[in-house]
Amino acid sequence: MKEEYKKYLPEISGAVIGVLLAFCFLVLGFFKTIFVIVMLVCGFLVGHYWPVFKKMLQNK
C-alpha cells in the first residue's frame, strides 16, 4: 500500500489542494482565494530555498 501512495502522491496531493482551493473560493471569494494562492506560492518558495540561503550565509 505504501508503494501505491508513493506512486500516486502528486495526484493525491493535487486533488486535495484543488478541493481545498475550491472550498476557499466558495467561502472566501475570488480575491481572498488569489491571496491564499499567492501566500502558498511564497511559502513554497521560502521553504524550498531557505536551506540554500542558509548554506550560503554559513559559507561566508
TrEMBL record:
InterPro entries registered for this protein in UniProt: DUF2273
Transmembrane annotation, as ranges: 12-28, 34-53
Entry annotated with the keyword Membrane: yes
Keywords annotated in UniProt: Membrane, Transmembrane, Transmembrane helix
Record-given protein name: DUF2273 domain-containing protein
Species the sequence originates in: Lactobacillus melliventris
